TrEMBL record:
Protein name: Glutathione transferase
GO molecular function: glutathione transferase activity; maleylacetoacetate isomerase activity
Residue span, GST C-terminal domain: 91-219
UniProt record similarity statement: Belongs to the GST superfamily. Zeta family.
Highest taxon above the source species: Eukaryota
Pfam families per record: GST_N_3
Cellular component per GO, a single term: cytoplasm
CDD domains assigned: GST_C_Zeta (cd03191), GST_N_family (cd00570)
Any one GO BP annotation for this protein: glutathione metabolic process
Occurrences of domain GST N-terminal (ranges): 9-86
UniProt xrefs under InterPro entries: Glutathione-S-Trfase_C-like, Glutathione-S-Trfase_C_sf, Glutathione_S-Trfase, Glutathione_S-Trfase_N, GST_Zeta, GST_Zeta_C, Thioredoxin-like_sf
Coiled coil: none
Length: 228
């Protein structure tokens, strides 16, 4: 049965246009047809965000009186409360592949290419090490994902439906390809998935918006300031 949030209240999503973690959740909200107000955090240490997520990270979701931070927790919360457009397949094996793909992205790739860390490496070691560092860790994760999804992918990462794995992959592929300029020659499956996401309207809308941000000086200045 479809659960909507339209009659009572719109959710609030604390987000940032360049944040791949926020984009995962925005995609989940989009596919579930849920209305939300996107609050773009524009200053480092925003007191409103710190009140609801003491780590100061985006995304954080406010659904009525329920507050949830961390994209994985938010998406699992949404999945239970709003079951329409299931983000997880019923088949246990395929479900576990979705968990694995999401976990590889969120634990073993994104934190290591987070701009805060990349800039820290730049200061600690050398500015020239920033890009190789990010590329090394993204590549390592992509090697694992290319192999993991090889037996399961269809049009999308784990078959012909859009599931959790796609919500994690699309923004991470965008980061790898467009922000960190990773050579994708050795990842034909991931490259094909990236093309599919860019051709699928719901993904494209959020990815295109972000592509503009890669070159937006104000956003880049904000990121630098946040990382200082
Ligand atoms: N595990 C968290 C990670 C959250 C996270 O790292 N968010 C990044 C944006 S993608 C952030 O807020 N970075 C700002 C900072 O590191 O200060 C999630 O999946 O939501």
């Amino acid at each position: 049965m479809e659960a909507t949030n339209q009659s009572n209240h719109a959710m609030k999503l604390y987000s940032h246009p360049m944040s791949s973690c926020s984009r995962r959740v925005r995609l989940g909200l989009e596919f579930k047809g849920l209305k939300y107000e996107c609050i773009n955090i524009t200053s480092a240490g925003d007191p409103e965000l710190l009140k609801i997520n003491p780590m100061g990270y985006v995304p954080a979701l406010m659904d009525g009186t329920t507050v949830v931070s961390d994209s994985f927790a938010i998406l699992l919360y949404l999945e239970e409360k709003y079951p329409q457009h299931a983000l997880l397949p019923k088949d246990l094996m395929r479900k576990s592949i979705n968990y694995q793909a999401a976990s590889i992205v969120s634990s073993s790739i994104q934190p290591l290419q987070n701009l805060v860390l990349v800039n820290y490496i730049g200061e600690l070691v050398s500015p020239d090490e920033k890009l190789p560092w990010a590329q090394y860790h993204i590549r390592k994760g992509f090697v694992a994902l290319e192999k993991l999804l090889g037996n399961y992918a269809g049009t999308y990462a784990t078959g012909d439906e859009i599931y959790l794995a796609d919500l994690y992959l699309a923004p991470q592929l965008d980061n790898g390809i467009n922000r960190f300029k990773l050579d994708m020659t050795e990842f034909p499956l991931l490259l094909k998935l990236s093309k599919t996401y860019n051709e699928t309207p719901s993904f494209r809308q959020i990815l295109t918006e972000t592509l503009q941000q890669h070159t937006d000086k104000n956003v880049l200045d904000f990121i630098k300031q946040q990382e200082a």
